[in-house]
Amino acid sequence: MTSVQDELKQVPGIKFVDHVAIAVKQGDLDGQVKAYEMLGFREIHREEVLGNDQVREALLQVGDGPNLIQLLEPLTPESPVQKLIERNGGRGGLAHVAFRVDSAQQAFDAMVASGFQIIDKAPRKGSRGTTVFFVHPKSRVDNPFGLLIEIVEDPRGR
């Protein structure tokens, strides 16, 4: 029997943790950005992501490396981030962990073939020009992740 860890090794192109996403309450985004900047993080991108996501995001770079912190502020009560905050008793917290891949489509196909439960019907446009898809926290009945996973392809290779 193979483990989830062994199966993830088969997903084409997983390179590193792209970002850790943290939900923040509506109105708290700027204050949270300032708090992370006090730790030496640097804001490199800000965008409103509409569609099903309904969030305002700020990306902060950790040092000179490729890893990012993504702060997500809900724009509407229907935002999945707002629903996460409500489940957390009105507090923000970990929203998801994202892994960088070379090809979102290859990773998507490999994960579907391995039996992972994918939330998106296909890879889709993400923020900052990326291509993304999400993997359900309970994707593997035998070994559920317990957290939402995002797979990210950055066409710029950054």
Provide key terms for this protein.
single chain; 158 residues; alpha+beta; 2,3-Dihydroxybiphenyl 1,2-Dioxygenase, domain 1; eight-stranded mixed β-sheet; 22% helix
What does the secondary structure layout of this molecule look like, with pairings?
Elements: H1 4-9, E1 16-23, H2 29-38, E2 42-49, E3 55-61, E4 68-74, H3 80-87, E5 93-101, H4 104-113, E6 124-125, E7 131-135, E8 148-153
Parallel strand pairs: 1-4, 5-8
Antiparallel strand pairs: 1-5, 2-3, 3-4, 6-7, 7-8
How many domains, in number, for the residues? 1
User: Count of DSSP helices?
Assistant: 4
Q: What are the segments in which pLDDT stays under 50 over at least 5 consecutive residues?
A: none
CATH superfamily heading: 2,3-Dihydroxybiphenyl 1,2-Dioxygenase, domain 1
How many extended strands? Answer: 8
CATH architect. name: Roll
What does this protein look like?
With 158 residues, this protein is α+β, with helices and mostly antiparallel strands. It has one domain: 2,3-Dihydroxybiphenyl 1,2-Dioxygenase, domain 1 (Roll), CATH 3.10.180. It is built from four helices and eight strands, in the order αβαβββαβαβββ. Strands 2-3-4-1-5-8-7-6 form an eight-stranded mixed sheet. A hairpin with a 5-residue loop joins strand 6 and strand 7. The model has no long low-confidence stretch (mean pLDDT 89).
